[in-house]
Design goal:
Mean pLDDT: 84
Radius of gyration: 19 Å
Strand content: 35-45%
Number of strands: 14
Low-confidence stretches: 1-5, 12-20, 225-235
Structural class: mainly beta
Distance between the termini: 25 Å
């Protein structure tokens, strides 16, 4: 969960300086919601597996987001809903969001596409409402990692996420010039343990997280990610 939230701080919010806020008691004020955004996430565990999916919801507020108590997210057509108590909070510059980055699909079902309503409730029980739309290529549910870019609609953007051994995100952005081998990455980020390619489309509203590629072989030396993954599967 820590890695998921960190990823969305940098990717969906698009700010390397985003901070996670703690809930505090603040002066009373009416909740004021600017907008809501939903991002559909397809998460690939291996090259051969089909993706797990989830919905990430971000509610931008004008009023102090630290007063948030809950979010209620409802799919308009089916009535399926998620009720989130104590949502995560993110601040970037003068912007702030209440967020639920890990909403799972109905049992034996999928996150439905279409129109969603979201209710933001503050500590005083006051509500504000917003809406967003979820759209994605249905074929992604039946597509393995190597076919993602062919199935995603519109322009795509490939970013690189580096994680340490504790699954903490330590870099997110474009592959840097000179990062031709794993050793090049480790020279700049010595605590990096694995990387994931993040393919995004539709203004970051559809995100595919490709399988982890490990940067270190078992002997601790920089090694090809494919070789490391194969070795790890023998455990």
């Amino acid at each position: 969960m820590r890695g998921v939230l960190a990823f969305f701080r940098r990717f969906v919010v698009l700010s390397c300086g985003a901070l996670c806020l703690a809930s505090v008691s603040c002066a009373d004020s009416e909740p004021d919601v600017v907008s809501a955004t939903g991002a559909m996430v397809f998460d690939y565990a291996t090259d051969e597996s089909l993706p797990a999916s989830r919905l990430a919801v971000f509610v931008q507020t004008e009023s102090d987001v630290r007063r948030v108590s809950s979010l209620l997210v409802v799919h308009e057509e089916t009535g399926y809903r998620w009720y989130v108590t104590a949502p995560d909070m993110i601040k970037s510059g003068d912007k702030q969001w209440a967020c639920a980055p890990h909403l799972l699909p109905p049992e034996n079902g999928r996150i439905p596409a279409g129109e969603y309503a979201v209710w933001y409730t503050d500590a005083a029980g006051e509500e504000a409402e917003s809406a967003f739309t979820v759209a994605y290529a249905e074929k992604l549910f039946g597509t393995t990692a190597d076919g993602v870019t062919a199935v995603m609609t519109g322009a795509t953007e490939d970013s690189l996420a580096l994680y340490d051994k504790n699954d903490v995100l330590i870099y997110f952005g474009k592959r840097r010039n000179g990062w031709n081998e794993n050793a090049d990455i480790l020279r700049d980020y010595g605590t990096a343990y694995y990387l994931r390619h993040c393919i995004a489309a539709d203004g970051n509203r559809v995100v595919c997280l490709l399988p982890a590629e490990y940067l270190l072989a078992r002997d601790g030396e920089p090694g090809a990610a494919d070789d490391t993954n194969e070795a790890a599967s023998d455990d």
